[in-house]
Amino acid sequence: MNTGTITGNSDLIAAIRDRFANVDTCPFQGERIFFENAGGALTLKSVVETSAFFAGIPDNQGRDNVAAHALVDKINAAKADMALLMNAKSGQFFMGESGTELLFRLIRTACVNAPKGAKLVGSSIEHPASRSAARRWAEIAGLDYVNVPHNDETGTVTAADYAALMTPDVAVATILHASPVTGMGMDVAAISKAIRAVAPDCVIIVDGIQHAAHGQIDLAAYDVDGYVISPYKMFSRHGYGMAWISDRLSAMPHDMLINAPATGWEFGTRDTGAYATLSDVVAYFDWLGGEVSDETDPRARIEAAGRAIHDYETHLTDSMIHGIGNLPGLKDMAHVQIIAGQDNPAREGLVSIVVKGMPSPDVVRLLNEQGIRTHTRKADHYSGNVLDPLGLSDCIRISLCHYNTEQEVAQLLAALKGLGDAG
Predict the structure, then answer these.
(1) Which residues form the Aminotransferase class V domain (predicted)?
(2) Domain 10-43+299-422: what homologous superfamily?
């Protein structure tokens, strides 16, 4: 009988790590610990192989030959796999330049089809990918933008926060599923329900880019119209984004070629290999679900994988915050400040900190010199909405995934403790 967990299962952790490229070494740096997953997760070895295979095929989709038919079959299979992964019962998936570009397209379409004088509601916690698009296209389309303030202390926004500012004339809404700065996840289903309770016909668009790697997406439960991911943050590769849109949003007038199919949203010939790598990602979640459960249904295995990923990543972030072995946790280091609190149940595999008296870029550099890859978030157009209210000019983002280990956390804690001892 499977235990349903990754935590403490060294054989399974080793098997997980073996499926990823460059899990503990960088081709340019050598040995390193990868705690920069929010900037782009590790890539599955199967994705690398699939990408190489399709890169060598000269044929395009839509022709009457064996290769072209096979390419179309691969794309259709990938879309079906994505529907399984994200539990989409209807609607369509399509590819774009990036997650940011797709959010702009979806939000633009929703805004220009909304009634003049209606409202668009979004939150201050959002990444600028959705927030910038919403602010820009609300103004162009003649909509009033309504900002839902997030809680600075918890790094979250709630359904109650949205409900407090909802009115029946809200035509478009944007939701961030997880913050790449605080690492906190939002309850998309609850927020969507609060929006529809007041404005049932509102077009709701979700930025799922940061959340996707953590393995739990359930579009059937969200009742939204758009959901966007960046596959390079979900174990695939750079160069494209993926969107799901509802049948209602699919049918809205949108940018398209004259006389093209009314519900077509893709422009030009897409990369079959990019689609095919998504099938690799779904196969990985399915495999992991089979390792942590006795489920035989593919969707049930994916759900089991998502639960196991969440639980293990929570174990790792708790170890980081509260300590591991004889090493003190971040909360016990006087020179460290944890952003959004030490015991925050919304946390998804990410801890952002400030080392007192040290600029964050210096800390990131010192960690990198010890083979620990982290990242600086500055109070700029990407992160100022979160850091400015806290009076912070920057922070160190430590973002992990379920292929990271307790030993890697211990090495990080030892390095950060050393910074305090040196001071």
Answers:
(1) 33-250, 309-412
(2) Aspartate Aminotransferase, domain 1 (3.90.1150.10)
